[in-house]
Amino acid sequence: MPVPFQPVSGLLCYCRPGFEPDLAAELAERAAGVHVAGYPQTNRNDGYVLFHSDNGPSLTHELPFRELVFARQKLMLLAELRELDPKDRIAPIFAALAGRGRHGELLVEHPDSDDGKQLAGLARSFGNALRPALRKRGFLSQKDDPRFPRLHVFFVSGTHAFLAQSTVGDSAPWPLGIPRLRVHADAPSRSALKLEEAFLVLLTERERKARLQPGMRAADLGAAPGGWTWVLTRQHMRVVAVDNGPLQAALHDTGLVDHQREDGFRWKPDGTLDWMVCDMVEQPRRVAERMATWFREGWCRNAIFNLKLPMKKRWQETLLALDLFAEQAGAHDTLTIRARQLYHDREEITVYASIE
């Protein structure tokens, strides 16, 4: 009879399929930087990375989720369940959870990959069966309770799953780590979703309330056709849209947009703006240098910009670009930098920078 579960220690992190080597390289380098031994395990296009370490609690503490770039979600591993009996997948989970205390929420998930999406139905139906069973046994609070860690059951096949947990405040709050956003019918382009997601993922709720205020002044570099400008106007900001190309006509009707037909890499404002956003297609180091100039010269207080990455060694290029930006931006004591590959990103990462 097979062992129903095997305790495991380390991290389980979700990512965009195809970027597993980049997340694995990031986790390995960051773990080495905080002197926690471990090693990554993954396969390309799986949509997740396992990072094995004998000290999972220490590792999850030393690698805060907000500092990870290629991870959509960060979980601490509890157990691996193999050869699950489709007639009784719950008993092994009970056995694995014995002595681990109570959890405040249950998420039953699957990889965001072509193969993983076929497990969506199983995850949904199993979650509906497992949730009341866990509550009856005392493993799960009667109502969602953020005071306790979340429990994640992560199916990689119908007979193979991982148990893991996440801490509220040190993980993504959405299933699979993906905020559910929809394209608005009046948005000039789908790129609007990238900026909407960036505000949700890279800013805290308190920061959004304080830094996305009506009447603020912003610039959108490389604005055409106006997706990011549209998002800013929905925050009732006044926007200088900088691009030689045309904007969606409806943006002019808002009375909030000043279209400057100039090169976004050369244009500069007359004074300090509250926001600068940029989604131009250019070499990441060139973008990083220009964005650093904006902060060094005091042209903006907050910025969100994208860095387009090469096909190979993307973690290394990310480090180089972010280090270059930090080095040239100045204001080191007051400059906040956060970066993440968002769900709506492709071969790029999105960076938020702010001078407190």
Question: How many domain modules?
Answer: 2
Terminal Cα span = 59 Å
- Using only C-alpha atoms, the radius of gyration works out to 22 Å
Largest sheet, in brief, is: 8 strands, mixed
Structural class: alpha/beta
Round the mean pLDDT to the nearest integer and report it: 95
How much helix, percentage-wise, in residues? 25-40%
Order of helices and strands: EEHEEHEHEHEEHHEHEHEEHEHEE
CATH-defined fold name of the largest domain: THUMP fold
**How large is the share of residues in beta strands?**
15-25%
Based on DSSP secondary structure assignment, what is the total number of beta strands? Answer: 15
* DSSP summary: helix tally: 10
Unreliable stretches covering 5 or more consecutive residues: none
State the name of the first-level CATH class of the largest domain. Answer: Alpha Beta
Task: Name the overall outline.
Answer: elongated
> What would you say the CATH architecture of the largest domain is?
2-Layer Sandwich
